[in-house]
Amino acid sequence: MAKYITRRVIYMFITFFLIATATFFLMKALPGSPISSASKLSPSQLAIVEAKYGLDEPVPVQYGKYMLNLAKGDLGNSFQFKNASVTELIVKRLGPSFILGSQGLILGVTIGIMLGMIAALRQNTIWDYGSTLIAIVGISIPSFVFATFLQYWLGVKWGILPVALWKDGWLSSVMPSIALAMGPLATASRFIRTEMVEVLSSDYITLAKSKGASGFEVAFKHAFRNALIPLVTVLGPLAAGLLTGSLVIEQIFAIPGIGEQFVKSIMSNDYSIIMGTTLFFSAFLIVVIFVVDILYGIIDPRIRLSGGNN
Amino acid sequence: MSQDIQKIPADSFERVHIDSSQAERITKPSLSFWQDAWLRIRKNKAAIVSMFILLFIIIMSFVGPMISPHDAETQTLTHANLPPKVPGLEKLGIMDGYGTLAGKEVDLYELKKVDTYYWFGTDGLGRDMFSRVWKGTQVSLFIAFAAALIDMVIGVAYGGISGYYGGRVDDIMQRIVEILIGIPTLVIVILMILFMEPGVTAIIIAITITGWIGMSRVVRAQVLKYKNQEFVLASRTLGASNGRIISKHILPNILGIIIINTMFTIPGAIFFEAFLSFIGLGLQPPAASLGTLINDGNKVLQFQPHILLYPSLILSLLMIAFNLLGDGLRDALDPKMKD
To answer: How does the UniProt record describe the way this protein sits in the membrane (chain B) (predicted)?
Structure first.
């Protein structure tokens, strides 16, 4: 296990280093620069501005400085927001994104688990088909299409929930969370159904039944607990999906989160925020996948045993 | 009863002879792998319906812009923001050209003195949405198919080489994959799009740059499984070259899995294209794809919901149909992988 973790950590750093390097050079190669539109500046003024942001130094020196700062957790300063530190900007916008992401994930996974269980326990009935249909629709319909229709019906037509913005406290987070929950819901329900069906046909379930355990007991005490463990493995892809979703969902609902900031910075060529957010997203996903893999090894004794033998 | 039986004359029975030479005869016609798969997929109603929906959408994406009386690009500003109006259906009270103006339901066609029909309505610049939606579908489908094809070619080649040659080659190639797989797709796609000129090519490259990894892993695992099997060993003993073993023995066996994987790449690519266009990194106007159309529609959702409705309807239908067909193909081509 220790060997495995060490190996994974090394890979994590290599991957992150590559992403950081690629991000840096891609940004350098981008057409246009953050100060190019300010043509009112005289060449000498331009030079002063460039010197201030370190843009006058040769690229390798910029790269070295950038990497050193990165190691210290300093992502540089924004060009757009009067020298605000990118790290601070990200931290400031973390709140709404975190609330939406976790609410969406919890809501989606909980309902998904229930749907999946119903489908598995009532196999090939109308319940099963209904829950499969919801899962397929949830996987197929992009969250931004779903979100816009939610916004139109719940917000504009019926006026139940605030249409957009982050002003009405918790109520503002309801619609975006529902929109984000569709993906996890679909994935979790399909996954749980498959696992439950497999577990329900195993020998120990037959044994439990033959010993007189009630249907409820078999379903929850024996089958469900074993079906739940592998769900941990899809948490990584789910987190990636939530991140992708949050970019558009925050945009649609005008939520002051990281995703919205990212899309805005792309439009305004704010290199340092694009770089910073990209690195933040990458680090987040890399760490989530790493934690999920380790966690899975810890909570599922079967994996731990086979790992120990190797 | 027993007496009745005894009354039947003995010669009305005939002794059955068991011909041992016929015991091994196969009475049912032998089916090839593809015939067998076709039999299985025919029973899957969802997959068949999806196939027809897909066929319809693909055909319409070419025929649609032609049969519409209006061009996709012509801007007729006097005809801007018209709701859908279809001959025939208008008498039923749906798609009759009525829309809300200042809180009242009015016939906007009469109001603006328009005497033609716009089947899906028009957008803010007076362009025919029917032509635009199908043109956009065409672009989205092209991007998706191209991306899936490139993913398949690279993935099969990479995974095949890695799995078949094994040893040091495999080691190096797998280490590279292990690093690449850690890079979040979203991040790399956005970076590549920023770097390249926006357009169809840029989107295809961005989607394929990490898209092939999944395919390469599946193919590698399959090649590893087959290359050590007896029939391959037999063929090798008989002096077959590597090329022959790969093309005659290994590829036909993993073709099913390659097809299944490709089928699931297509909706993924459709989604990513729409996603990129939605956040403004996709096609630039006047080019339209389903994603850009949805983005445009989203801005005027409150007043002109029809502009958003049709492209998102077709996008959703495409995604559902591809997913269901992919499920059906998986069950048909590889019954072991079912769920």
So the answer is: Multi-pass membrane protein
CA–CA dist B143, B270 (Å, integer): 7
Average pLDDT, chain A: 77
Please give the residue of chain A at the shortest CA–CA distance from B337. Answer: A194
Q: Which contacts of B185-190 are long-range, i.e. CB under 8 A and separated by 24 or more positions?
A: B185/A240, B185/B210, B185/B211, B186/A240, B186/A243, B186/A244, B186/A247, B186/A281, B187/A19, B187/A278, B187/A281, B187/A282, B187/A285, B188/A22, B189/B272, B189/B276, B190/A266, B190/A278, B190/B276, B190/B281
Residue B150 confidence (pLDDT) above 90: yes
User: Domain extents for chain B?
Assistant: 37-68+127-338
Query: How sure is the predictor about B105, in pLDDT bands with cuts at 50, 70 and 90?
Result: low
Mean pLDDT calculated for residue range B291-320: 80
Residues A53 and A137 in one domain: no
Q: How far apart are CA A229 and CA A91, in angstroms?
A: 32
Which superfamily does B37-68+127-338 belong to?
MetI-like (1.10.3720.10)
Residue with tokens 């996948």: A289
Maximal CA-CA distance, chain B = 96
Query: ∠ at Cα B210 (B144, A303), nearest 5°?
Result: 115
Q: What was the pLDDT predicted at A308?
A: 40
* A194, A280: one domain: yes
- Residue A235, in any domain of the structure: yes
Q: In chain B, where does DSSP find H-type helix?
A: 2-7, 33-42, 45-67, 108-111, 129-165, 167-182, 185-195, 200-227, 230-237, 242-244, 251-278, 290-299, 305-333
Number of folded domains in chain A? Answer: 2
Do the chains contact at B194 and A26, CB–CB below 8 Å?
yes
- Does residue A61 lie in a domain region? yes
Please indicate, yes or no, if residue A76 is contained in any of the structural domains: no
User: ipTM higher than 0.90?
Assistant: no
Rounded-to-integer distance, Cα A1 and Cα A7, Å: 10
Residue with tokens 């995703």: A259
Same domain, residue pair A144 and A205: yes
pLDDT tier at B152 (50, 70, 90 boundaries)? very high
Domain-embedded: residue A161: yes
Please indicate, yes or no, whether residues A57 and A126 belong to a single structural domain of this protein: no
CA neighbours closer than 13 Å in the CB half-sphere of residue B136? 35
Residue B16 has pLDDT above 70, yes or no: yes
Tell whether A272 and A183 lie within a shared domain. yes
Task: Check if the beta carbon of residue A71 is closer than 8 Å to that of residue A263.
Answer: no
What domain range is A194 assigned to? 93-299
Q: Which of B45, B276, B279 to mutate to test the interface with A (most CBs of A within 10 A)?
A: B279
CATH number at residue A156: 1.10.3720.10
Best mutation target, B194, B270, B281, B315, to test chain A (most A CBs within 10 A): B194
pTM beyond cutoff 0.80: no
Across the interface, whether the CB atoms of A140 and B316 are under 8 A apart is answered: yes
With bands split at pLDDT 50, 70 and 90, how would you rate the model's confidence at B214? Answer: confident
CA closest to A129 among chain B residues: B46
Nearest-neighbour CA in chain A from B15: distance (Å): 46
Residues A65, A113, single domain; the answer is no
> CB neighbours of A200 closer than 8 A, spacing ≥ 6?
A120, A121, A223
Both A31 and A177 in a single domain? no
**Cβ pair A266:B190 closer than 8 A:** yes
Q: Given an 8 Å threshold on Cβ–Cβ distance, is B294 in contact with A148?
A: yes
